[in-house]
Design goal:
Elements (H helix, E strand, L loop, with lengths): L2 H32 L3 H17 L1 H10 L5 H15 L6 H30 L3 H30 L5 H24 L1 H13 L4 H31 L5 H29 L1 H21 L3 H16 L2 H11 L4 H17 L2 H11 L1 H21 L2 H4 L5
Helix pairs in contact: 1-2, 1-4, 1-5, 1-6, 1-7, 2-5, 2-14, 3-5, 3-14, 4-5, 4-7, 5-6, 5-14, 6-10, 6-13, 9-10, 9-13, 9-14, 9-16, 10-11, 10-12, 11-12, 11-13, 11-16, 13-14, 15-16
Length: about 375
Amino acid sequence: MDKKKILLLSLGHLSCDLNGGALPAVLPFLRDAYGLSYQASGGLMFAYSCLSSIIQPIFGLLADRFSRPWFVPLGILLAGCGMALTGFMNTYWAIFAAIVISGIGSSLFHPEGARHANKAAGKSKGTGLSIFSIGGNSGFVLGPLLVTACVGLWGLSGMAVFAVLGLCTASLLLWQICRMDRQDSHTQAGNKKYEEAGVNNWPEFAKLTGVIVSRSTLFISFNAFIPLYWVNVFGQSKAAGALAIAIFCASGVICNIGGGLLSDRYGYLRVIRFSFSLLPLVVLAFSQTLNIWLAYVLLPLLGCALYAPFSPIVVLGQKLLAKNIGFASGVTLGLATSVGGLATPLLGWVADGYGLPRAVLCLTAVALLGMFFAWRLSPEAAAEKRA
């Protein structure tokens, strides 16, 4: 594994997803400054989510046909500059256009970044993709903190910090990664021949997409509902709700690395199946408990079951579409994630009408669906051309 290149790509992933984490945090400031409605604020989130996720497969196909190392820094630069411009625009549609630019940058980065991470990981693809994904997870955590600090100090013009960070990271990656690619041109030619010789297994990839959508629905829903659960069901403070989501995310990030290491040793499919077999039990137990201490115990289990299979899923998707690794990355990192998020409003409707515990109970069915698709995946297909 090329550790230096993986770490650089993880840094780039952090810099890119810093902007995705920043957008929800800057919306209240934009609402106060320009009197935006909740609907208009939701439109800005929709613009970023659609462009950063739904069109990723298109950029993935582009990366498969015209792979260029400078796609990685260009995506980071566009994402950072677009987010920075939100602090300097004074009309809704100008802000909307700036967010569109940021979303396009994110869409450009992820498929090509995942392609490079796949190659740089060598035989340790699970571990390599885990390190790559931790950068993105960290970006979503740090983004809101950076917005709060910068806008608090300098007002909306403080968003310029995101352009500075994007420019610095993009420059570093343009210099380092392009230089590494020139040095490894012979190896890359061999990798290209390998990809061209690979076979796309679309039926198995469709099953894997079912796994991804199930995981995404669970992940997004618990991110949204855990703080509310602590406040409205357990009667705790907002600070306790923030602590609960922090425990969930921190345990998940740790298990992300563990899932990658275990998948390299025992196989991607085993980690995916084990995690999705555990999920229905944990989700059901969480929905039924009225004891806050038991809920705290279940949080790390829930985080591990959702985070551990993430990198094995991405690597397995790339293996199943060996001729179109960029497209596979665009679906596993982008499209299926957005589709999973569409279920959140429906669960919110259930929570409004029947209470949060009933909404979480509904997620047990989603977990069972994910387990069904996980066990439907073929071991033979997952083992094809295993590095």
